[in-house]
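=== RUN LOG ===
request id: a7f3
mode: sequence -> structure
chains: 1
length: 135
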Amino acid sequence: MKKAVTSVLLFLCITMNAGGPWKMGLTCPNENINLIIDLYEESIDVPGLEMFGPMNGYLNGNIYGVWYVTGFNILDDKNVTIKVANDLGSENQKISLTQTSDSTWMLKFEGQQVVKRAVGKKLVKIPRELVMKKK
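=== RESULT ===
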């Protein structure tokens, strides 16, 4: 009986974490910016880019255009670097994402920041660091 209970508990632990830490939706409520990722398989349809098929994710919201995931490097269960490109493919940005608590992640734009938002007729920078919450 003890062996059966242990097996069931082990099975439940494995299936509860089947999505893994890098399959989720995050949002920055203060800036209205979203990051939707599945770094385990290309399973996400990017809004406006559905004709290219499923991808690993995208960044959108109160920014200029939709930025889709072009590459990534999972460092561990709490740290990943993600490369995104704009919907035209003409610009790219490297992002680091670090889990700081159970429900909070820190998103940092690395290098020269090219992800911006439209304000009136100008493109302006968004904050270099965003506190992201799970959707």
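=== NOTES ===
The CA atoms of residues 25 and 56 lie 12 Å apart.
The chain has one helix and ten strands.
=== END ===
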